[in-house]
Amino acid sequence: MKPAPIRRGTLREPGPDLARLPMAPDFTGINVIEGLRAALAFGSIILLHTWLAWPPLLTMALAANLTCFCDIGGSIRPRLRALLAFAGLGGLFWGAFGVMEGYGPALVLPVALAVIFCCTFARVWGVPAQTVGNVLVVVLCLALDRALSLHQGVVVAAMFWAGGLWAAFLALVVWRLHPYRPAHAAIGDVWRGLSRLARDLRRLAGEPQETGPAIWEAHARGHRRAVRDAIEAARTLVLDLARSRARLSERNARALIRLEAAEQLFGTMIALSDYLERATPAQRAEAARLLRLLPPALKVLSRAIRRDRPVDLARVERALARARPGPGADPALRRMAERILDRVRIGAKLSGPEDLVGGGGLAGSPAPPWRETVLQPLRANLTWSSANLRHAVRATVVALPALAVTAWWPGPFTHWLTITVVLTMQPFYAATWQRALERVGGTVLGGLIGAVLAFYATSPPVLAAMMVPLSVLGFAARGVSYGTFIACLTPLVVVLVELVEPGHSSWEIVGMRALFTVLGGAVAVLAGLLLWPLWEPARVRDALRTALETHAHYADAVVAERLGEAQSAAAEAAARAAGLASNNLEAALSRALQEPRRRGHSRIEAAMVADATLRRMAGRLAILRHEPEPAGAEAATWRAWRDWLSRALAATAAGERLPPKPEQAESTAFGRIAAQIELLAGTLKRAGIGPREAGSST
């Protein structure tokens, strides 16, 4: 039976269409436990307020709710720093700006703009700092709703600190999410991505009449990019977890082993895909048994890792025994199959070579000094060519008229304009456009649901009780997609405003929120177009040059490994760098294709050809790692080709003429790589990408 084609263009099945906005929901991101914990932190204080009727409790409840937004998971220490920083700064901002509001816009606006600049620029220190900065902007906008006396400001700040500490206490002490669970889930996602990659290989190998070069390029662009991104996400979580503990625990060691085994398996799967693209029907038939049994085994292993449960070793061993190619199979296929099955076995048994964990440099990497962590990103982004600096300046400039509207037209709804403008705006236009669509669509849908619910709630106790399930729903959907999260969160906002600001119709609340959201989204999109944009064609050229350089290092490391001149860890690190460079190139290409103007369109098309060529070259290099070790005259041939590859890729990056090929040009191991480099150089030359263009950054 002909296998059904896999669905493309979603987060569950990545697609090759770089021009498509990544807006599809991923329902595996639903986290009911997180929703319940956020509801407890927020809802318990709301219910207490209905009993005591003390208004400062609403500030405490809102602080607890906003603190939950800042908790993005991971190991305890980074989460603790983020939550405490938000609680401390949030209380200070609310109290201080509430007091300053009484002195008029001449004092408030300059200070508020400086704070917005700092909050939006905080993304240079990573996702946790970016999240805290975004939510602090929300606190700032809420603080400007009404003026406070000094006594009221102190009370508000104290209650905000109490709410933030209450939420942090629940998250990190009372109702702790399993500290290892995020790492297990991330590594499980890696193995699940490998299962999908293997399943797609099975489909392609079974349909030789449809597997032209474009089909294999789509496979490489979609699946390799997704697995590499998953590996890097898991690597970050595992390293943070290892650094947050005084010693390497048994669970953390298991996570390191499984991640390293998955990364090595990924490299071999790349080699297998390149082998199958050029294989004969007989060779594909030999690989059919492996590709038929491998995806289910990887899927079982993924589920066990995500749940931190033992793997049925007997079942895995039986599947691996059946998947092994027969004695008459091609030797290259047998070598790759043995390495694939060995890595699956390591992931299942958690036993293997003693140096496996250290092979990728995971276990022994110390945390960088805090000065380097703080100052290095700051220095790197204090240049006008930095997208993050331009984003912070752009957000600050556009926030000025929005804050002016809030100052001269006070009310319970105007702060939504500033919040929408700042939070919708992103460093790149494509991301801003996507965020605006998701925020507007989610707000309208969620607002209608919230209005219906608030219409039938006839008393404050009913509204307060309704907020608990709405909070569960909103936070549980946080990982699905931004649009889904906004759609689930907006009903909570509508009910909250109905409770805090009685006297407003639920339909009025929905209408005003929709109005300011649409207006703010439109302003953010226009600002991204008009105010100091960084158009992607120039950044594509930079990304392409980096990709060429990293693939040159990869080729050098592979040959050095096969000649016995370097350890396999160097080749693994070079493969990782090459994969990351290809992913960065594709991300820049995706943003360029989504831009409204298409300057340098021919160069973008040339970069897409280059991306596909580099993916193919990486596959050939992966196959070289499974070739028998060269000796004698063959070793001299390999050295000659290594020198040529480095010089040829450097010349391609600079737009120069390729050097003459070695005399041993008949080498089949390097002939295809040389042909790919020649194709790449010709494509870039016809597109007019020369030394100046390749090095441009503006």
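the 2nd protein, sequnce then structure:
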Amino acid sequence: MDNKVRKVLTSLIAILVVTNLEAQTQVPKLVVYITVDQLRGDYIEYFYNTFGERGFKRLLNEGKVYPNIRFDFPEVDEASAFATLFTGSNPCFHGISSNRKYDFEHEREISILYDPAYLGNFTRDNYSPKALFSSTIGDELKIASKGRSDVYAIAPDAESAILSAGHAANGAFWIDDTNGKWATTTYYKSVPWYVERYNNGVESLSARLDKMEWTPSLSIDRYNAFPYILDEIPFKYTFSEKERKCYPKLKTTPFVNKEVNRLAMQFLEYGGFGTRACPDMLSVTYYAGNYLGNMNKEYTHEIQDTYYQLDKDIEQLLDAIDRKVGLSKTLVVFTGSGYYKSEEEYTAELDAYVTQGEFHPKRCVALLNMYLMALYGQQTNWVKGYYHNQIYLNRKAIEDAKLDLGEIQRKAAAFLKEFSGVQHVTTDYSLLFGDWNEGTAKFRQGTHHLGRGDLIIELQPGWKINHDNPKEKVKVIRNNAVLTPLIFLGNGIKPERIYREVKATEVAPTVTYILRIRPPNASQSSPLKELSTNKGELAIPAK
């Protein structure tokens, strides 16, 4: 082979390598991040035979599929999961440890995102993303594009909408619990004309509410995934604004996913996504948890119908994206929130076997306060209260008395450890100053030092929490981690099934890697190597 032929072949090889590299790492025109609150991978498997070919099956057959993502902290809920997925960091950095927090000054429970500095649009609630300390994927996209990218989020609830949008987004929209309209906060400056038209027109949710009826989509014999269903009577639910919790109940039915799709179609039709020089981003949240009226039931016809209808909603959204922008130009990210919430009630016979005992937080707080009074004087209450498995001490009184906070926390922890049902007590001091181990690391990852209690109580399995509220029946609250798939589809990504677990903190840096922008500022994980061209090594085109 002479030198001329060799040079020509070398050049052709170099062109092919560079072309292939560019094809694999193309920047999408649009990112659609689909998160399904309380999605269960095992349910997708159980109900698989009832699905069509272009919803769940399309994601599984045409996408790059990871079987499960793992969160590195306990008590995962909607807010903490969404903040982690979109920032690539854990609550110890991004600051969102749960949906709600307790305002001890006004003695009330409020949203973690409550912010009285901002009014609501189409809602009386006050929210902002200021409690989120980290940037999100959308924030970094806004920074990289100098604001030219459009970033929007649509979700049933305010927490998932705002946390998936971030600080710099154009807007975040959720369904208001009182009027059923698509609401937002004045923190965001953009309310597109088509959202206002939708809220005020004949297509609004309230205008269609009396015609909505949830009944089985299939014949009852098709819902055969569980052998534990005792009720063979087809369910039927209707909705009226006169009914208490009308919209919160509707938001736990398949109708909420259809409402999300209705608004998403407005954005795809009129928002100009994929037409700008810089990529755009649309975050869409669906719901796949229990019906609010059925929280104490498992293995129901309702949950099977929810997944059957969700399959159709996913199909509709993917087809709309393909039609308006093209899946080849769109990166679709699909995953869930990593938990599944339910309440269990046992018969008296089963309760005797399953339940180990009851833990009473009010009694615990009272006894701890008496103990600290015996040690440090009775001139004040040394304990503020209990919330979400954490005890908050009266730090101002401790400071005024010139006492050592760390010492009081240690003595209080030793006292609480003697309570029946208490597995372990972790102090804020130990988490702050490195006196933690593998067993307590999860509490460090799952809390932020600015909002954490002084003592974190971990109960033994099988113990109930009894708040001594005569109006509230004691239930076993389960918040188990579940199998949660992660799927990347479109944008030239080749179908593949990768049989390994990934961390929830790896999702955001992977998306930003594909977008060729910086990861969120608190993210410390690397992109998933299967989604990066270099497979973990530097890919240098041949010369």
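The chain has a mean pLDDT of 91. The first helix runs from residue 3 to 24.
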